[in-house]
Amino acid sequence: MTAPHRHALYTVAQVRALDRRAIDVLGIPGYELMRRAAAAAFASLRRHWPQAQRIAVYCGPGNNGGDGYLLALLAHEAGLAADVLALAEAAGEGDAARARTACEQAGVPVRRWDGTSPLLEADVHVDALYGTGLNRPPQPAAAALIERLNSGGKPILALDVPSGLNADTGHCPGVAIRASLTVSFIAAKRGLHTGQASAHTGRVELATLGLPESLWQEAPDAYLLEAAVLPPRPRDAHKGRNGHVLAIGGDHGTAGAIRLCGEAALRGGAGLVSVATQAEQLVALNAARPELMAHAVDGPQALEPLLERATVLAVGPGLGRGAWGHALWLTALDSALALVLDADGLNLLAAEPRRFDPARQVVITPHPGEAARLLGCSVDDVERDRFAAVRGLAQRFGTLAVLKGAGSLIADADGRLDVCPWGNPGMASGGMGDLLTGLVAALLAQGCSARDAARLGVGLHARAGDLAARDGERGLLASDLLAPLRSLLNGLDA
Q1: Least CB-packed of 100, 211, 233, 408 within 10 Å?
Q2: 254 and 218, same domain (yes or no)
Q3: Residue 281 belongs to what domain range?
Q4: Which residues define the annotated binding site?
Q5: Which residues are annotated as a binding site for (6S)-NADPHX?
Q6: pTM higher than 0.70 for the full model?
Q7: Which residues have C-beta within 8 Å of that of residue 100, sequence separation ≥ 6?
Q8: Binding site for K(+): which residues?
Q9: What mean pLDDT comes out for the span 404-416?
């Protein structure tokens, strides 16, 4: 389903403000919004499960439960067998109570969940237990019901947000519904697109409930990336116009990391790619990829001539944290060249923090463990609020920051933020970060700003991973992404 504003992501507070504006300024009653939400969700249910004849709806006491009661009513009116299991003896107040009354008066059976009774028989279960306001673990009775639903083997439709998932952060403080489909109302909630959310939302659809454009006056908190490529090259292009990436790394035993980085820079379109590495890596690199100009570098003095010819540095893959890697890292950071830092380049930065000149194009690409070291906190702290973490990284170091993981995040020092909607679990394997480092460096070399290089690079990397995973996620290798990456970068297989 397509909808206006589907790439705009909002915080829970922003969505509540939109809801209040619809009611107080546009004059749309809350019950009418509830009715529209139920209708949109029921339409999605019928579209995805057209053969379903029996619907079971699980309602909490709040407005999310009200949406569920009205959906059950619509199913009943459409001739389906509809049953409701309620968390509370009665709905809360206002519109939710009115919705429950309408459902009961129409003859829809409403029973209370006692914590032990079996699930209702149904072809599709509908989760209307909690809405966007939950930021704590579900109550024990609700948690038991959620666990029962998750293990029931039937599809689950979540209304607005899977119950138990924090709609602001994508974190689950306790058990949470694992939905097959989530229909989000009015505006897309940012927490449905990163972190643990990917294991709980299933497919996400947005229903804007027919609200007028005048509702959306506030800028969103973040945006979902859209598929993008670089424009075609001019017919008179030559390698000198496409930049020179210098990849620095590959200490003893890590030739593979710096090779993947360098090869990704080549496939990403850099005109020239040099590698500064240990002498023992030269034979392997030259044999495997002769297009890489590999140089034995034993220290800063040997690195200086390579820096003079480079336009962008990619530092960290296989760099190590010993004397050799540390000396090259210091030399790279002291130059004025555009820079991508990953892996041990980030671990060294955590040990010796520095804030970069805002005029310098710098991108850091940590995974949650590296991010935790850079921020001086735990991995759990990072994953509890990935949005705050990536913004904290960008502001602390004065860089463009990428926080990798499910729903990778990209933030600049001014707080602008993008979320990657692509990628798959098969990409959780060694070498994927090395590829991203080289790709972002190649895009910088071709004239992209740090923000554009990171946004485009993260998107292309994830989309290439999805194409490569068509043969299966398990066993996916980082090098499997190189062929689809080239196709995507040229506007093919998009």
Answers
A1: 233
A2: no
A3: 239-489
A4: 63-67, 127, 131-137, 160, 163, 257, 318, 367, 404-408, 433-434
A5: 63-67, 131-137, 160, 257, 318, 367, 434
A6: yes
A7: 59, 65, 66, 69, 86, 90, 91, 110
A8: 64, 127, 163
A9: 96
